[in-house]
Input
Amino acid sequence: MSQSLIHKYNVAGPRYTSYPTVPYWDLESFSLEGWKASLQRAFQESNATEGLSLYIHLPFCESLCTFCGCHKRITKRHEVESPYIKAVLKEWSLYLELLGSKPVIKELHLGGGTPTFFSPEHLNLLISGLLEHAELAEGYEFSFEGHPNNTTEAHLTTLYDLGFRRVSYGVQDYNLSIQKAINRVQPFENVKRATDLARKIGYTSVGHDIIFGLPFQTETDVIETITKTKALMPDRIAFYSYAHVPWIKGNGQRGFSEADLPTPASKRQQYETGKQHFEAAGYVEIGMDHFALKSDSLYKAMAHKTLHRNFMGYTASKTQAMIGLGVSSISDSWYGFAQNVKSNEAYYKLLDQDIIPVFKGHILNTEDLIIRKHILNLMCNFETQWEDEALVFNELPEVLIKLKEFELDGLLQFESKKVIVTENGKAFIRNICMAFDLLLQRTKPETQLFSMTI
Output
């Protein structure tokens, strides 16, 4: 890949798990009542046909991984489990009351934090409580994030019996020096044990999360990690670019300096090398930063153009409504976004008052909805079109002028009223989406809000 293109396009930019992106939410006009109305509308329109998705944020970790930008609470005190689960179930009861009829669950994901911080018994209480007043959609998918060091056979068996068939393990990198730098030491043997256990129990999709661009990481380290990964052949792989965002409050990423990180060109080479190794092993690139075997549901969704992207990342099925439960969780009604308070104390206090614990959000206007569709098309299918009059917007001519620059660089091509991202352009998909991001174009951030795109 051209060094000049890497230099040209390596700018700060969103990962587009939403549009508008969180820094551009209109907080002044947002209200809890407006959010409730948008969710009720989405539920009425789609519950019977699509069902809804649930994301549950379990924030506790026993130690701080210094590569992580997620919201977490570090503690070794496991007595925090029971009150937190009771609070999540209380929040769910408030949503059930708002929705008014039994929801159909299409997708459920446990994220964190470290979901396997919780005991199997407490996870059973949580999931059983969530499903008690809900129905399951045909082809529903339950998944969770497991830590290879503490995911036990009891965890896997308990969640399997509750309907879970997909688990993803955070691997990051197998080099011990890098693991120490990011405070995430986990031998290959632990990952193999957890992977083999899941398959023995009956999980149909086991994923591994690997990160490139970590401090002190080299191309050789990436190759060695992928070689060990191929020995286990997980069904899907998230090959994430390390997002260096130390300015986020509470982030542990100040344990090393930017000088310890690979250069942008080296980082991009790590990805290209990784991609070659994955594809040689039979994996197919899915959207941005993901690979899957052709037997996995993520590949099938891409092939059928039903791949979706939201705050949970890429998903194999789309639901119009996604409810996030737990501290810091973000919900999505398609017409609006809402984020929960970020501290456990504030979360518990609002729930004690029977208040859904949202503290900010955004209600999408007509323009937002059009741009959101274009960005989703690009992130999921690497193309978008405006032949459909419903996808035309006032500033489209200005956007097309910006896209011409990408065409000149060989990163996309025009076909009538359509743009298609080229193979080389996939590496710059965030930049291409930024051309459609009207809010970003109108108000350039004065400080860095996002990680670098390369």
Notes: The mean pLDDT is 93. The two ends are 12 Å apart (CA to CA). DSSP finds 15 helices and 19 strands in the chain. The CA atoms of residues 338 and 403 lie 31 Å apart.
